Amino acid sequence: MLKPYIGIASVDGLDVFEREHHHVLRFLLRRAYRSKRTGAVCFWAVMDDAIARNVSDLLQSGCRQHALLIIQTLATETGSFCPDDSEWPVLFAG
After folding, report:
1. Could you tell me which residues come within 8 angstroms of residue 79 by beta carbon, excluding any fewer than 6 positions away?
2. Domain locations in the chain?
3. 81: which residues sit within 8 A by CB, 6+ positions away?
4. Which of 29, 61, 67, 82 could lock 14 by a disulfide, CB 3.0 to 4.6 Å apart?
């Protein structure tokens, strides 16, 4: 079954990969803000559960580049999202 996932990718490969949920999204945006100087990018992907488990296993075993490659090639849909600098204070207010 296809499900949405979100994560952070950088030049080193996949940094974070989680099932989409509003609590995870807030954590992800905070982490991306702290990492924005490293060129980290927030992304979303829609993929089958089996592929997502494979990606998670690769990430846990330290194969960050390979995990990102799997997402890039096997996800049904992908996209990036990162607020511009003027939006960060609004996201973290309250």
Report:
1. 43, 44
2. 2-82
3. 42, 43, 44
4. 67
Q: Which two tokens stand for residue 41?
A: 């990018």
Q: Tell me which H or E stretch contains 86.
A: none
Q: Report the distance separating Cα 42 and Cα 70, nearest Å.
A: 16
Q: How far apart are CA 59 and CA 44, in angstroms?
A: 16
- Residue-wise pLDDT for 51-81, tens only, equals 999 999 999 999 999 999 999 999 999 988 7
| DSSP secondary structure code for residue 76 in this structure | S
d(CA 57, CA 61): 6
Predicted TM-score (pTM) of the model is: 0.79
